[in-house]
Specification:
The structure holds two protein chains of two kinds. By secondary structure, chain A is of the alpha+beta class. Chain A folds into two domains: about 110 residues, no CATH class; about 55 residues, no CATH class. Chain A has six helices and three strands. The relative contact order of chain A is 0.10. By secondary structure, chain B is an alpha+beta fold. Helices cover about 55% and strands about 15% of the residues of chain B. Chain B is built from eight helices and three strands, in the order ααααααβββαα. The chains are: A alpha+beta, B alpha+beta. At the A-B interface, helix 5, strand 1, strand 2, strand 3 and helix 6 of A face helix 6, strand 1, strand 2, strand 3 and helix 7 of B. Chain B: InterPro entries: COMM, Commd2. Chain B: Pfam families: COMM_domain, COMM_HN. Chain B: This is COMM domain containing 2.
């Protein structure tokens, strides 16, 4: 795990009981996780009365360092021994290591979901709606009498946060073809994920 | 239902009895070809020279034939109605028979061409799919994230439009379920009753 010098320094500061007593340490740690995982969190996470005595610059530095480390650990899927080793190297005492690992374990799933959702991907289909109509005539063609479907795929673009829709018409044979192919894909997926 | 032919239209068609039936058959062939691929004015000039008439006359004759065929096909008029409509032109029995045959032989294809003139939404052409498993990304290592990549081919106004999309296994199953319901809908009593009563 590669961390910058600034991050390492900030993290090591957290180990020092002189800078952060037990209570302050726990609060800062929780604040770091909250900043990352709570969508509503803002700078106010650090506004706790028990943190007021600490120099705001130091507070911010250590908060950032902790958050950076947490992200890096999450990204690399660090296990307890990796975490412990690094924390020991930073001169954290046993109690603080246990605390960190417990907090990390509690938040691990949310962290991984968050990290997994970041990144580029193709437009993602989220839903489908359909309409069945019976075509009777157009101004160019009378006495048509045939069913037709209008299918709309709801699509999500992860990077641009846009939600374009893809609509197309099809007749019965075409819809059967479409459904058939999607079913094939679904069955293959089932088979593949059984291994 | 009888066709309502305007005076101008009858005028244009009046050229047909002036040539022999093989020429009319040829005009018929040209008319359908023009419907398929668009008009080619050079054909008119060639024919005009051979028949010793103005190319305008030939053009009107062919266009008159085209309009006769498209109107009849659009309305899907019966054999009898077609014969009665053409009767007012005062053509020979032989010519009437030829025109009727031309109508019946080409009606289906002409209706297909006419259906392409409707307000056009992209329509389904085909679909390709691929299974993928994401193993890692810049922000998260050691993943096993299955997904389905879909290439959807659509047609619009004669152009092919391709969209590349992705979905997850759960949504894929949902899509299949929803669309199967859509297909089932045509078999319900309600839809069958509607289809039976609109004729």
């Amino acid at each position: 795990m590669e961390l910058s010098e600034s991050v390492q320094k900030g993290f090591q500061r957290l180990a020092d009981p002189g800078s952060f007593d037990s209570n302050a340490f726990t609060l800062l740690l929780r604040a770091a996780f909250q900043s990352l995982l709570d969508a509503q969190a803002d700078e106010a996470v650090l506004d706790h009365p028990d943190l007021k005595h600490i120099d705001p610059v130091v507070l911010k530095h250590c908060h950032t360092a902790a958050a950076t480390y947490i992200l890096e650990a999450g990204k690399q899927r660090a296990d307890k021994s990796t975490l412990s080793t690094y924390l020991e190297d930073c001169k954290f005492d046993r109690e603080r290591i246990e605390l960190f690992c417990t907090e990390y374990q509690n938040n691990k799933d949310s962290l991984e979901i968050l990290l997994g959702s970041i990144g580029r991907s193709l437009p993602h289909i989220t839903d489908v709606s359909w309409r069945l109509e019976y075509q009777i005539k157009t101004n160019q063609l009378h006495k048509m009498y045939r069913p037709a479907y209008l299918v709309t795929l709801n699509v999500e673009n992860t990077d641009s946060q846009s939600y374009p829709e893809i609509s197309f018409s099809c007749n019965m044979e075409q819809l059967q073809d479409l459904v058939g192919k999607l079913k094939d894909a679904s069955k293959s997926l089932e088979r593949a994920t059984q291994f | 239902m009888l066709l309502d032919l305007s005076e101008e239209h009858k005028d244009h068609l009046a050229f047909l009895p002036r040539v022999n039936s093989s020429v009319v058959a040829e005009f018929g062939r040209i008319a359908v070809e023009f419907l398929r691929r668009g008009a080619n004015p050079k054909i008119y000039e060639g024919a005009a020279r051979k028949l010793n008439v103005s190319s305008d006359t030939v053009q009107h004759g062919v266009e008159g034939l085209i309009y006769l065929l498209t109107e009849s096909s659009k309305l899907m008029i019966s054999e009898l109605d077609f014969q009665d409509s053409v009767f007012v032109l005062g053509f020979s029995e032989e010519l009437n028979k030829l025109l009727l045959q031309l109508y019946l032989d080409n009606r289906k294809e002409i209706r297909t061409i006419l259906s392409e003139l409707a307000p056009d939404l992209p329509s389904y052409h085909s679909l390709e799919w691929r299974l993928d498993v994401q193993l890692a990304s810049r922000s998260l290592r050691q993943q096993i994230k299955p997904s389905v990549t879909i290439k959807l081919h659509l047609n619009q106004n004669g152009d092919r439009n391709t969209k590349v999309l992705q979905t997850d296994p759960a949504t894929l199953m949902h899509l299949v379920q929803q669309l199967e319901q859509a297909l089932e809908e045509m078999k319900t009593n309600h839809c069958r009753r509607v289809v039976r009563s609109i004729k």
